Amino acid sequence: MVKVGIIGAMELEVSSLKGQLKDPVVTKKAGMEFNAGRIGGIDVVVVRCGIGKVNASLCAQILCDLFDVTHIINTGVAGSLNNDLNIGDILISKDAVHHDVDVTIFNYKIGEVPQLGVREFPADAHLIEAAEKCISQTQPDLNFRVGRVASGDQFISSSEVKNRIITNFEADCAEMEGASIAQCAYLNGVPFVIIRAISDKADGSAEEDYPTFEKAAARHCAKLVADMLKEI
Ligand code: ADE
User: Fold this and answer.
1) 175 lines ligand 1 (CB under 6 A)
2) How far apart are CA 73 and CA 194, in angstroms?
3) 205 CA to middle of ligand 1, Å?
């Protein structure tokens, strides 16, 4: 039976999904509220993990251990690292990488966590397809691409850092949780996908409008995730 764990870092990334839950049951663990229930007849657990990679990993592992989720979807906003991705557009993860891991001194690739044997954690092909299908059916005017998510415990807001991440990782967006959720899903053998709406250009531009873009982008993304559930 399918049970989908849905993780957002911030309340605005999960509030509309929580509002759609039928027969919600809340379990508190590690300072997080795991909201189990059904959306569109599918069993889900919706949770706000908090910001950053440690919170995200903890949350994903709890979803695996306590809730036996069969799939994990990470929804939220991200900064664009690709000129073809503008504010409001959607990035569906092909894979995810840690942009703030550097053990190159011991001959690991930049971003590679030692001894895992993988640098980019691949997202699940079926979940990617479900997201693509959903956009073309329910929001055909939405611009999206399937690409690489780069994650780190940093809000990217300068061209210098942005360009370094692009050069090192050929990534399409930057955020602060996806790769740790991906690593956890990979280690537990659970299929995952990251769906992110672009809220900024990761270069400090249009900073004053960020809260507005962030709110709209997060809502956008949550709608897509809810629509996607019936395709899983
Ligand atoms: N989330 C949204 N925009 C971001 C950025 N520029 N860097 C990191 N996380 C983000």
Assistant:
1) yes
2) 6
3) 12
Query: Beta-carbon neighbour count of residue 2 at 10 Å?
Result: 11
160 is catalytic: no
Place of tokens 């919600």: 24
- Is residue 89 lining ligand 1, measured as CB closer than 6 Å? no
Q: How far is the CA of 158 from the centre of ligand 1 (A)?
A: 11
Task: Report in angstroms the alpha-carbon separations of 67 from 38, 49, 187.
Answer: 14, 15, 16
| CB-based contacts of 47, cutoff 8 Å, min separation 6 | 5, 6, 7, 8, 14, 32, 33, 34, 35, 59, 63
Does the CB atom of residue 173 touch ligand 1 within 6 A? no
Average pLDDT by consecutive 10-residue portion of the chain (232 residues)? 97 94 98 98 98 98 98 97 96 98 98 97 98 94 96 97 98 98 98 96 88 88 92 92
